[in-house]
Amino acid sequence: MLSVKGLVESHCLSSIPSKFVCPKTPEDSMLCESDINNIIPTIDFSHLISSNPNQTSKAIQQLGLACRDWGFFMLINHGVAETLRNEVVKGSQRFFDLTEEEKKEYAGRDLLDPIRCGTSFNPSVEKNLFWRDYLKLQVHPHFHAPTNPPGFSEIIEKYCEKSRGVVEVLLKGISRSLGLEENYIDEKMNLESGSQVFVVNYYPPCPKPELAMGLPAHTDHGLLTLLMQNQIGGLQVQHNGEWVPVNPPPNSYLVNTGDQMEVLSNGRYKSVVHRAVVNKKAVRISIGTAHGPSLDTCIHPASDLITHDYPPAYRAITYKDYMFLKQSNPLDTKSCLDLIRI
Asked: Most CB contacts within 10 A, which of 2, 7, 77, 215?
């Protein structure tokens, strides 16, 4: 299947093929018009690792509120060098600039293939395709990356190691915000052998952006996703029934909670619904590192968070089985969580 980038470059498109036209609902147009960026939670990472216990305690409280009320926050002062982040973006562009034949080498076929390059999300079950090409790499517990373009693999490996360090601190803070031991999530989710997936989303300019969708409303299947992008916006999160465009400050991360965080917290922290819209003027590149349990870990609500008033809200399932459940269904808001809800 021809990539969206290849489609755009091989045709002088004034419109888009019908298979990329995504039906819209009234809810899709519920766009927040206020300057919402002033109230989107912002977490200062340096406060989470501060030697000042009062400052750390306040940051953990803010982190818990962000996970509870939004499932999403912007992260500043995270310590990942801007030069490294820029190298990852440039390397990603170089990968997608490879020929269709060169990229085909990394196509992959199965969900657990360590390197997969493709388009849309899951064309085998989708009625409508999405205006998006992607590269997905399993980078932990074992590291995999394409050898082409030269040097890209080394940049990815260094970047993923840094992002894992950031997520380790965030998960300790989230554990404490839930009233659990600091290492609870680390130990119960077996994060030493946990899954880390590096994903590059490439959204070419679209001649009819109002008809297409980069990625539809969905949730992520893991615990936390760390996202950065080039300077082109397109991410929207759902909050109080409205779609909120996100315009992050320079050199920040966008962080969202995933399905396994909702299950683990027994519904206290919600997996945030988000989507990616496209534009007609410029390429948007977003780079996410998705962090989850080890594949064989059985996910269920934390026993410490189950009470008479809060009985278990989800049935237990291994992370691997949940990933296959997600992949075998169309990308559709929280439909997979509904399948394991009690």
From this structure: 215
Eight-class DSSP state of 123 = T
8 A C-beta contact, residue 153 and residue 145: yes
Q: Closest Cα partner for 244 from 229, 231, 257, 234?
A: 234
pLDDT digits (tens, 9 = 90+) for 40-55: 899 999 999 999 999 9
| Cα 246 to the center of its chain, rounded Å | 14
Residue 65's domain is classified under what CATH number? 2.60.120.330
Tell me the per-residue pLDDT of 255-313, one tens digit each, with 9 for 90 and over. Answer: 999 999 999 999 999 999 999 999 999 999 999 999 999 999 999 999 999 999 999 99
Domain that holds residue 50: 4-8+38-340
| Residue 27 included in any domain | no
| Dihedral angle of Cα 73, 32, 263, 78, to the nearest 10 degrees | -10
Instruction: Report the sign of the C-alpha dihedral through residues 140, 143, 149, 154, in that order.
Output: positive
